[in-house]
């Protein structure tokens, strides 16, 4: 004999008061991030939310939206999300970083390609991985540094994208050493010119206008 249909009334259904806001924020985050695999990304989103970790969410929609079907899926916005999640550490465990990469639905082949540029064992210095990721976006060394500054800066979007000169010079030297076409003497001459510009302002910060202006002069 079939069981009778269970009847529910509104008083029997308990909806946690925080659920509507959680779902609202989740929906807005998914729209901004445009993950290639919503289920994979959702698992990472709620896992981070439950732990109180930074969420895998972009600040805004990137246009055009990158998809794994048309390109690598790696964008400045994706790297910025990873920086929010990892930037508080000097070194990041590769296993943890790989999981965060997967949660953003980025192809694992691209992750391995980045690591091949400067192989390491179990952990990686975060600023170096971020720099290599920026180099994967294409363009010249200066374009790579532009992307890096825009990710690291505390300036509002569209501003000068200033970062500490010490950070800029550290990353620039690191990337230059990996490029056989860039001579050490040229790197040091370039950074010395930038140092003069920074010192003339008695400021430790450097912005996009500084190094792009010098690039035209050199």
TrEMBL record:
<dbReference type="InterPro" id="IPR047844">
    <property type="entry name" value="ROP_DD"/>
</dbReference>
<keyword id="KW-0282">Flagellum</keyword>
<keyword id="KW-0966">Cell projection</keyword>
<dbReference type="GO" id="GO:0031514">
    <property type="term" value="C:motile cilium"/>
</dbReference>
<keyword id="KW-0969">Cilium</keyword>
<comment type="similarity">
    <text>Belongs to the ropporin family.</text>
</comment>
<protein>
    <recommendedName>
        <fullName>Ropporin-1-like protein</fullName>
    </recommendedName>
</protein>
């Amino acid at each position: 004999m079939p069981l009778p249909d269970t009847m529910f009334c509104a008083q029997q259904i308990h909806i946690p008061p925080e659920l509507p806001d959680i779902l609202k924020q989740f929906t807005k985050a998914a729209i901004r991030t445009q993950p290639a695999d919503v289920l994979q990304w959702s698992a990472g989103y709620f896992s981070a939310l439950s732990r109180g970790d930074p969420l895998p969410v972009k600040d805004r929609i990137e246009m055009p939206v990158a998809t794994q079907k048309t390109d690598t899926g790696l964008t400045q916005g994706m790297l910025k999300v990873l920086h929010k999640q990892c930037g508080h550490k000097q070194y990041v465990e590769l296993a943890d970083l790989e999981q965060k990469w997967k949660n953003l639905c980025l192809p694992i082949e691209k992750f391995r390609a980045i690591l091949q540029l400067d192989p390491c064992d179990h952990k990686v210095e975060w600023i170096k991985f971020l720099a290599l990721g920026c180099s994967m976006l294409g363009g010249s060394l200066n374009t790579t540094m532009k992307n890096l500054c825009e990710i690291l800066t505390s300036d509002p979007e569209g501003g000068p994208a200033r970062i500490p000169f010490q950070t800029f010079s550290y990353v620039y030297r690191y990337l230059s050493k990996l490029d056989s076409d860039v001579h050490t003497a040229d790197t040091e001459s370039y950074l010395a010119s930038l140092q003069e510009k920074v010192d003339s302002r008695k400021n430790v910060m450097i912005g996009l206008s500084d190094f792009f202006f010098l690039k035209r002069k050199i």
